[in-house]
């Protein structure tokens, strides 16, 4: 039985002030680095994984590097874990987006499965790419444990796939910075074990 530990990266300034991040390479802030280190300490108490994979964006890379170090592993990047492409919205706040694309922004928050982001991705494309990545890596590592470090949109779409839920449920799954999620894969079937676990961050608040 394969085991996948899915982690969201730590906080960035664009998380703190809420800007659409997407493919922008926004670094972790001081809080995010502390969160990554706390996550690494938590996961260091678990059995050594077979591999640690990360989105190629630095906020995920640094988080994954911290997690890999106690296990003596070299973190690997995987393009399939990169964040959603927010197109014309990238770098803007929701308020700024609303000035130019109010209808599209309303769809993003009210019916995300229908949302059209100007020059960007849609949720189904992200989900298909992310789930293929999970399935490929599980096949590659067999009945072993792997850690994946990605982004809130990517993680939510993976978790929707694990639970067999539609993209309309996107906003019904919480994904806090450095949240830990765990699921198993056996005979192609997913079982969710842990969702949005942030207890390792309690001493940081």
What features would you highlight for this structure?
205 residues; 6 strands; 6-stranded mixed β-sheet; Rossmann fold; alpha/beta; globular; single chain
Explain this structure.
This protein has a single domain (2-85, 122-204), classed as Rossmann fold. The chain has a six-stranded mixed beta sheet with strand order 3-2-4-1-5-6, with helices on both faces. It has helices spanning 13-16, 30-44, 58-68, 94-100, 102-110, 123-141, 152-163; strands at 2-8, 51-54, 76-77, 145-150, 180-186, 189-197. Helix 2 runs parallel beside helix 3 and helix 4 crosses helix 5 (102-110). The protein contains seven helices and six strands; from the N terminus they run E-H-H-E-H-E-H-H-H-E-H-E-E. The mean pLDDT is 97. With 205 residues, the chain is α/β, with parallel strands linked by helices.
Count of runs of 4 or more consecutive helical residues: 7
Number of domains: 1
Oligomer: single chain
Instruction: Give the CATH class.
Output: Alpha Beta
Give me the count of strands.
6
The strands making up the biggest β-sheet line up spatially as 3-2-4-1-5-6
Distance between the termini: 36 Å
CATH architecture tag: 3-Layer(aba) Sandwich
Write down the CATH topology: Rossmann fold
Question: How confident overall, as mean pLDDT?
Answer: 97
Biggest sheet layout: 6 strands, mixed
Helix content: 25-40%
Indicate the low-confidence ranges by residue numbers: none
CATH-defined superfamily: Phosphoglycerate mutase-like
Q: Give the H and E element order.
A: EHHEHEHHHEHEE
